[in-house]
Fold:
Amino acid sequence: MLICLLLCLLLALPAQAEEATVPQETITLSFIGDCSIGDSIQYRDYKTSYHSTLKEKGYDWPFSLVKEVLEADDLTIANLEVVFSTRKKPAQQKTINLIGDPDFVNVLHAGSIDVVNTANNHAWDFGAAAYHEMMGYLDQAGVPHFGTIYPHLEDGTDIYPIVEIKGVKIGFVGFSYPQETDKKRISKRIATLREQGAQLVVLSLHWGREEQPQPESGASIFAKYCIDAGADVVFGQHPHVLQSVQFYKGKPIFYSVGNFTFGTMDYVDPDTGIFQLTYRIVDGEATLSRFSVVPCRTQGSGDFRPYILTDPDEITRMRKKLVHKRTVKDMTTVTDFFIENGYMDFPDGMAVGK
Structure:
């Protein structure tokens, strides 16, 4: 009887060990900054322009030095700051009017870019018709896109889709130059996504002052409101440089993730990064478990490719740019551990750990 009991126990051990080592399912989202896959129209025929570079190098070129990282995640989200159109004449009197050939939509697939925000200050550089033309190219290419631009106008857009990854539904909302009057609009769209089953909501805000290393003072208050309204991530761009990161109620706020690949803009700080959020999935629910950044630097005319930093001093300098300099009630910023190691863990989905 005793021998039988021991045999039963021994037979049970491998199954128990195997069950204990089953990896927990996770999803990883990558966020990258301003991607202007094209040029200001007056420069498109230059030898060192984005158009000339792609014609010579091919669609794989812009993201070729970071593609391994972007392929390894579950979803890469970018700010697409250009108009893919056949139009020749800008609709606005601006110094910079960003345009790319329609076939440049193929760069997104080649670079493993999965979802794009189109709500930014260059969306209507060539008019509403050109913007809607680009929506058609993205749809034909099967690239999910989102953005709310002038919803009160007949030809405005109000797109906030849901993308499902590993059974987790992720909703997307995008606003450009958000104002106090937009708070209710943002809240309404987040609520609608939740009603449609979104378990995570990404809010893209194209905001802030260009080339400023720290966000405007009111940005923290605005971000708090958005998270209280149900956003899980505030994904900011527009300043063209890195700005700080904060956390509120365990939710990340990226005030500006900088330029990633950008035609017609060589003079700004080239430091950038791939901002990654890993969520563990338990009983169909996604809970933030890690925030990390792959430190990168982008390149200008004739190249345009971001690459991963390897020099320890440059990496540390880049990470320090993400420290929020002001103390804000109920909010935290990246830790010394992050500056040294490049990641932070969220053991219970709320409190910031290592």
User: Anything to note?
Assistant: The first strand starts at residue 26 and ends at 36. Confidence is low (pLDDT under 50) at residues 1-21.
